[in-house]
């Protein structure tokens, strides 16, 4: 019985050694079967069901035939052209916007007012409308001019000499709007012989300077000029 048992164990061992060899041989055969044929593409499709013999698509016919330098020049040309067109469009838009925002002819006509000074007698006031605001024009006498120059400028709330407020001593031009709350002062009234604001009691002298009351500043002087004798242009 001992020789028979020994022979059985030898047979089992031989079979166990033969199985890995068979497995290795079968794996090698499978790999060889899966390997692509010579000359075939090595492309592996990511989609199931695709044949492994599919080739990579050829896009060469869509590629530019020119050189790399010519391609760059064409790209630069297109970028420059689009930039020029964009700049021209932006310029046209801004220009049209500015034209629409500019003042019309009737508004420009109201921007300046011409006054005939020959119609204003000495010692009298004239009130005209300029840009929606009243403008006082005073033809001052020599006594009024002397009175305005005698005032101590240092004692004023808003220090300003009479010479700084007029271009010609006999003509005083200023906005008729109180610097307190915007009321219209009354001419030839008040404690200083100039203008008086009835709203809150501000007193201005013959030069339009604040002398008494709540107003903080002198009456404003607009832009004006004398283009010729007897004519005044405001604005």
From TrEMBL:
GO cellular-component term (any): mitochondrial inner membrane
Cofactor: [2Fe-2S] cluster
UniProt enzyme class: translocase
Keywords annotated in UniProt: 2Fe-2S, Disulfide bond, Electron transport, Iron, Iron-sulfur, Membrane, Metal-binding, Mitochondrion, Mitochondrion inner membrane, Respiratory chain, Transit peptide, Translocase, Transmembrane, Transmembrane helix, Transport
Membrane topology: Single-pass membrane protein
Cofactor note: Binds 1 [2Fe-2S] cluster per subunit.
Reactions the enzyme catalyzes: a quinol + 2 Fe(III)-[cytochrome c](out) = a quinone + 2 Fe(II)-[cytochrome c](out) + 2 H(+)(out)
GO molecular function annotations of the record: 2 iron, 2 sulfur cluster binding; metal ion binding; quinol-cytochrome-c reductase activity
Any further remark recorded for this protein: The Rieske protein is a high potential 2Fe-2S protein.
Protein name: Cytochrome b-c1 complex subunit Rieske, mitochondrial
